[in-house]
Amino acid sequence: MDRDRLTAFTDGVLAVIITIMVLEMRPPHGTGLKDLVALWPVFLSYVLSFIYIGIYWNNHHHFFQLVKTVDGAILWANLHLLFWLSVVPFATAWMGENHFAAVPTALYGASLLMAAIAWYVMQLVIIHRQGDASPLRRALGADIKGKISPVIYLIGIALAFFSTIVSDLLYLGVALMWLVPDRRVEAAILASEKAARK
After folding, report:
1. Is the full-model pTM beyond 0.70?
2. Separation between Cα atoms, residue 121 and residue 154, nearest integer Å
3. Containing structural domain, residue 58
4. What is the DSSP code string of the chain?
5. 10 Å Cβ neighbour count for 155?
6. What's the domain count of the chain?
7. pLDDT band at 119 (very low <50, low <70, confident <90, very high)
8. How far apart are the C-alpha atoms of 184 and 59, rounded to whole Å?
9. Distance between CA atoms of 109 and 151, rounded to whole angstroms?
């Protein structure tokens, strides 16, 4: 199958996830500024999750520039990723509405951890499909960020029961680490385009 159907479907699902998250942000019942300020946890959790979904969308776009065709295994690996990303709006709403309480903050970290694991599984499936000359494998190299992220999520989940502020800062740290699209993949895409033009 051509990759375009998979990427179009993924784009649509991620757009729906972002829409669900913004719809969870209910306006305050009062009309004063203090009523609006009381919603800061909901807004901050939305911003963090919006950034995360944006990062996944951006990196998904870059990764699939190196994938020409997909098979059933890649389709299911992609659906596995989308499943865990679709849990993020629930975890976001629960954490925000409960002012970053311990259990919701830990669950939020767990949703991020499972999405990261699903992303890693998808990478492995793509690399296996592409074989020994996998352009994705060459682009990823040691993939230090990909290996560090789940560890930070696990630490954040554990620390949620002691300090939710530290947990949230760790989650934010991972987001900032991934905010800029992976330059290794961009370099591989440029090299592939140059080779195709020759």
Report:
1. yes
2. 18
3. 3-197
4. -BHHHHHHHHHHHHHHHHHHHHHT-PPPSS-SHHHHHTTHHHHHHHHHHHHHHHHHHHHHHHHGGG--B--HHHHHHHHHHHHHHHHHHHHHHHHHHTTT-HHHHHHHHHHHHHHHHHHHHHHHHHHHHH-TT-HHHHHHTT-HHHHHHHHHHHHHHHHTTT-HHHHHHHHHHHHHHHSS--HHHHHHHHHHHHHHH-
5. 14
6. 1
7. very high
8. 11
9. 11
pLDDT band, very low/low/confident/very high, at 157 (cuts 50, 70, 90)? very high
Neighbours of 141 (CB within 10 A): 9
The answer to whether residues 10 and 82 touch, using CB atoms and an 8 Å cutoff, is yes
Calculate ∠ Cα 172-122-76, nearest 5°. 120
Average pLDDT over residues 82-104: 94
Instruction: Name the phi and psi angles at 192, rounded to 5.
Output: -65, -40
Q: Position of tokens 């709403």?
A: 93
Q: Could you please report the per-residue DSSP string of 70-87? A: --HHHHHHHHHHHHHHHH
